[in-house]
Amino acid sequence: MAEVTIPIGPQHPALKEPERFLVTVEGETVVGADIRIGHMHRGIEKLAEHRTYIQNLYLTERICGICSFTHTTNFSQVTEEALGLEVPKRGLYLRTLVNELERIHSHLLWLGVAGHEMGFDTLFMYSWDDREIVQDILENMTGNRVNYAYNAIGGVRRDISDSQAQEVLRGMDAIEERMKYYVNVALNEKTILKRTQGIGVLKTEDAKRLCAVGPLLRASNVKDDVRRDDPYAAYGEIPFDVITADTCDVHGQVVVRALEVVESLKMCRHIIKNLPTGDIRVKAPRKVPPGETISHTEAPRGEDIHYLKSNGTDKPERLKVRAPTLANILSVAHMLKGIYIADIPMVVAGIDPCMACMDRVLIVDKDKETSQMVEMDVLRKFGNEWYEKEAHR
Amino acid sequence: MLENLVKWSRIKSPWVIHFNSGGCNGCDIEILAALMPRLDAERFGVLLQGSPRHSDVLVCTGAVTEQMKDRLIRIYEQTPEPKFVIACGTCAITGAMFESYNTHGGIDKVIPVNAYVPGCPPKPEAILDGVVKLLTSLKEG
After folding, report:
1. Beta bridge partners of B88
2. What are A302-341's pLDDT values in tens digits?
3. Strand partners, A21
4. What CATH number should be reported for the domain holding residue B52?
5. ipTM for the complex?
6. Chain B (53-82) residues lying within 8 Å, Cβ to Cβ, of chain A
């Protein structure tokens, strides 16, 4: 059968971000995939060189709106290391708390998007509604729903009051109740099993070879988590399990993310109950002595790396960010091979792609596309109808 | 008579398409949150559409990167008349902090804009308010 190339994107309503795929198919089977990235390149690393460290805190926050806190944590950590600052314990605990709340909201968000991609819109509505509980907690604690501006170089900006701590605990109870339903859905619901099992297989050795990170790597049965392997903030003192799955497919990723939320709930409770007293931040000098520092954190999507080169002024000489989606995008190209066209949205959504994080210093292909573009939404509809029409599996 | 009917149906069922022209995702998840059960934008007839050819309102976010500029214009041209554009978020309005070699500094530098919703990111309530204000202005004239 002759090979046909189908371009998908970049306008991409299902995932809310532009990206472009060139998928080569033989009949219904995908034989090759080429991914074009760079549509979101905003030149953030160059902008960072023209701003002071305090201004950069707000810039790095806006690398990505979903994992904003991980990026500021990372940037604070590289700067603190360059300055040789010791952050007070209470500050570290609060930083960890917001990191985990962010993981809960990001994973619930992903669960909804995954449900949407497989035509299970009820799950989409449910999980986004429950996500609002976390958003309310975050808004109450930090003052904003998405870009919190909670981190500061040398600690965090706001302390937590007793009533706020009680609200966090109440919210955790409410979400735990709902998580029982989601874990049950992830493990047993027929719609999810049919659309995810055996799809987008990434074997353990492939995952290691392609340098996958985060839930994708853990779904390929590799026990790897920055929070455990190289504890930052207060992670060294908080007990938690690293969740893995041995199915090595999209279903494994659903299960890993659902169970990670349950783990995060426990961690949040532990943090609130064992919150140390004392200061939340130390004053940081504006000028950073010359040096090179590197820091990594576990973002909801995987390992996120920041590198800083300082030169003694109040502005960085170089800031380099490696976001988790960039590490995972190679695995997507691998996972797409051999699947049906109808499964493409599931596999792409599976890694929880965050293009805003990724597209920073990449060489951009600016060729204008002349062929007909397929929109992801249209492809999602096609996939759902394709499975409805006849039992393909 | 027919004119009134068309106007009524236009106000009662604004189908929106969401376009990210290079934002940070913050506005995008808030737009989705506005469509979720808590605020339930569907009670105003707002429905998220995948194709620009089926939609009336273009909700744009982001500071318009060089690569997305041509696509934004193309999506705008594909949307059938009458069409309305909402610039959602501070960087869709002015470019905000992303004023670099690769961005154009706002949606209205590239296509005409009917309504602006400020905030970084605007709360879902604010986005919904922007949509309702646009609809009210249509009703009045």
Report:
1. B117
2. 999 999 999 999 999 999 998 888 888 888 888 888 888 8
3. A8, A35
4. 3.40.50.12280
5. 0.90
6. 62-63, 65-68, 70-71, 75
